[in-house]
Amino acid sequence: MEHHQSDPVLDGFRRSIDNIDAALVHILAERFRITQAVGEYKASSHLPPADPGREEQQIARLRRLAEEANLDPEFSEKFLRFIIDEVIRHHRRAAGD
């Protein structure tokens, strides 16, 4: 097995990436904790699991924020849709319980 010499610059970048990944996991966990509570509230209040109007507003808002942050708005939309689809799946499951 080849031993690569440590590169302090690369190691520094990687530590930052590791910290950001950890923060993303915690942020997503918190987001899903809240949306789970929303799903339970909607189910007990007999509200529909999905809210397409709110979804469209959220996506438009995120695309604007992405553009301002120099993040690809297509990527930000795909990422948010992926999360929303998962949330709706949870809400449908809560509604069916």
Automatic annotation (TrEMBL):
Pfam families: CM_2. It comes from the Bacteria. PROSITE patterns: CHORISMATE_MUT_2 (PS51168). It is an enzyme of class 5 (isomerase). Gene3D superfamilies: Chorismate mutase (1.20.59.10). Its EC number is 5.4.99.5. Keywords: Isomerase. NCBIfam families: CM_mono_cladeE (TIGR01795), PRK09239.1 (NF006691). This is chorismate mutase. It comes from Aurantiacibacter gangjinensis.
